[in-house]
């Protein structure tokens, strides 16, 4: 189910184009910078591709791989699933030819890049893991490619795990313009992609468990989405407030956020919907959900 803006909700399989199970280019999304591909490899599988004008990551969702780029061999240990562990990953620069060999499912977040950085490996142990919110708004954020955690030209990416029955991406927030407010708040202009997986389900299973995602706009820039998402589904957020992301009781929810924008300095600056920002103040009197962290060690939180 979804309400209006149906192009914002892209179920698993609807953007597939060999060799990609999911292919979201800036052109497909109708914007300029952010992209996402998902690669499914059988045992002994191999794919070779060019990055073109995009920088990319190879992020194991389930499985392990070896990545060859610029005469480097980067071995990814990976993980059994997004709910099992934090993973290592590889960075791929623009204007590179890449070969990925392995077995499993791999996300390749991307962004149009102006600088060509070096390909490199990032270890799982170096990923900052944050427990954010409290009570039923508790969630885990793996800040593996946040601006202060890993260097890229424009690409920003994080993972969020929401325990069953909880809400994340809450209070709803937006980042649709570069702006400094009189009250000291700062907002960055960012395009954003949400890629979902749901515990107990598999991408492409029409009878699998579900979660829900809300996106809504302002009078000046209307957008109205309430989508029922299954594993492998994508939500595009060109602008507007997004949140909550809702995990159904009984089913943990995962999403990969991919963000990119025009500013030369990477940022995740956002502003809350003023009607709901007060919720943050209520967290001081609530404990973090004891089920967290769902995957991997915690290295500080907020």
Automatic annotation (TrEMBL):
Give the Gene Ontology MF terms in alphabetical order.
Answer: glucuronate isomerase activity
A GO BP term, please? inositol catabolic process
Asked whether the UniProt record includes Isomerase among its keywords, one would answer yes
Task: Indicate whether Isomerase appears among the record's keywords.
Answer: yes
Q: Which UniProt keywords apply?
A: Isomerase
InterPro entries with a match to the protein in the record: Deoxy-glucuronate_isom_IolB, KduI/IolB_isomerase, RmlC-like_jellyroll, RmlC_Cupin_sf
UniProt cross-references to PANTHER family, sorted A to Z? 5-DEOXY-GLUCURONATE ISOMERASE
Q: Per its UniProt record, what NCBIfam families does this chain match?
A: myo_inos_iolB (TIGR04378)
Name used for this protein in its record: 5-deoxy-glucuronate isomerase
Task: Look up and give the organism this protein is from.
Answer: Micromonospora cremea
